[in-house]
Amino acid sequence: HSEARDFTKTKQPNGKIVKNGPKDESRRQKIAQQRKSLPITSVERQLVEEVRKNDTLIIVGETGSGKTTQLPQFLFNAGFCRDGKVIGITQPRRVAAVTVAKRVAEECGVELGQKVGYSIRFEDATSSSTRIKYMTDGLLLREALLDPFLSRYSVVIIDEAHERTVHTDVLLGLLKNVQKTRSQSTSQMSSLEKMKASNGTVLEKDNHAQSQSFQKSYHGTKFSPLKLIIMSASLDARGFSEYFGGARAVHIQGRPYPVDILYTHHAEPDYLEATLITVFQIHLEEGPGDILVFLTGQEEIESVERLVQERVQQLPEGSRNLLVIPMFSSLPSEQQMRAFRPAPSCSRKVILATNIAETSVTIPGIKYVIDPGLVKARSYNPITGMESLIIIPTSKAQALQRSGRAGREGPGKCFRLYPENEFSKLVDSTVPEIKRCNLSNVILQLKALGVDDIIGFDFMEKPSRMAIVKSLEQLYLLGALTDDYKLSDPVGHQMARLPLDPIYSKALILANQFNCLEEMLITVAMLSVESIFYTPREKLEEARAARKCFSSAEGDHLTLVTVYRASAEWLEKVKMANNKDKTAERSLSKWCKENFINNRSLRHARDIHSQIQGHVEQMGFRVASCGDDMLQFRRCLAAAFFLNAALRQPDGSYRALASSQVVQIHPSSVLFRTKPECIIFNELVRTNHNYIRNITRIDPLWLPELAPQYYATQN
Ligand code: ADP
Ligand code: MG
User: Fold this and answer.
1) Does the pLDDT at position 129 exceed 50?
2) Which UniProt keywords apply (predicted)?
3) pTM over 0.90
């Protein structure tokens, strides 16, 4: 009854009709109050003044102090978006860009995608009226390809700079250049204007000629200076300041509450089990307050999610009020927002998050943090040229950030699932990603932006020469670079346009020639998401049987294609019968459950598929299928992934041809038992073994035929 009243139009005392009901009104008041109490709010005027005075500013502030949500609004209100200019804020993670944009749109009382919007790879929620634009750092890099001077932006804010993602580091270098060029352009323009003013019309003609030639050199654009703001949660602003020629740094004081840190007595042999025990210990023994658990990735989060849900059912009825909420980057955005909603009264939320919850997003209500002390990180071996994901201990800085999450709204507790003496052994801070990843993507983007001298590029922290050379070599072998290391035409340019790893972009370009673009599009989309299959411990046999229906003797790539097609067929059938999108979605998740397919991952893959399809169609490619000719598809895979070929050895292990590394087929591969003589693979996972995943059987003779640039010269 009262629900219905909440949403009717109400007449306010001042006579204005507002669409929102009292519920919305009280929510708006609550938000206004929250904003007023943020530490950043008391320094609004000073901050705006600092931005006016300094072209580059570094802002350091405690997580949750209001940097990400408030500063862009301050600058908007101070007139930084005059002449239709945009304030751009970059985030290392998609989740943060989306959730923060939604929050700020709500704070401003506008519809998302209007004044406030976001743009991330494969998803754009902006319009021509967007003035405050949240985006991933990778996306701003892509925009620079089309608009090298970022002329739409009056302010660019690099947020979460302490994370030092590879994109952040490249952006910092790039923006340093853009800023220089834009301020040169303005100072020259303004001296021209001045001359014109003092000399009246006499010089006008000359002026015109001068300014014409000047403008031409900047592609005919007249620039205003670019304001650059670097925001960081960690305390060390010195590195950033030095890199930007002694740029000014300001600190925003936070008001954190004390957090009790608890350690385990001994090292935990199974940290997931230890996590579960701790969750329930808190739930049953501690006072009210939500729990935040830091895990390493989607697979781990989803398995803990299932286990918590199972064990909750075994609790006495009065204690089952525990709500599990996952939070990781590829989660569909409406599900990401669940973490921010308060738990229903008398129940407790437990949020299972990756390190996105360290600083990127602040979730209200957290009083307890569980930190197993691990993080998934990229790691690159410049000798073999192989990148892999490994699980490593966090740094001290990360551990401190994590525990800090418990003390936002009151005193809290952090449970570190390792002994106290382990803490002192942690490294102080994480090595910047640019020093531990394959650089071929970065190099391709820089080349496309006209930066040819990669070794001479002004990186804040230079990657090793060896890593640069190895990545240049890979790009050359993929045909993206010419003999003198320039971007090749058309392949290099096409590869730079696609928002994918260079090796996947090349696979699509080749598939266009091999007439199997339809299959390759599906493959690339499915390889872009984590774990399509899931295997709950208690239903091992059923899951295996279900997977068998999709298995292809050729390998995992075709298996993924089969899953995708089966799901699409199912969806078609439901839509034909029922014609309602909502029913179809629900029915697809039922289909996923029955077939032990991860519904979230599949949906994400479907999104990615439609986006890449748009890109390749724009490039003039025709999406054709090779039908039943699987040979054609496998040959195309071999031609694309020849750098990841491996040969079986007498003992059943494999030797990767490019690196001579010994690797094993991962047990999840459909080829785990068959062990063909020669294979290509897509992923190297390092645990106690070097496991390879996503594998297809090929003929070794294809390698010298399809990749002569690499295999014909060897032996
Ligand atoms: P900072 O960038 O300094 O870490 P933020 O601007 O992200 O701080 O957040 C400021 C405050 O706004 C947080 O403490 C949180 O309470 C609130 N907030 C941010 N995003 C959301 C959201 N999506 N839903 C609810 N509250 C939010
Ligand atoms: Mg922030």
Assistant:
1) yes
2) ATP-binding, Helicase, Hydrolase, mRNA processing, mRNA splicing, Nucleotide-binding, Spliceosome
3) no
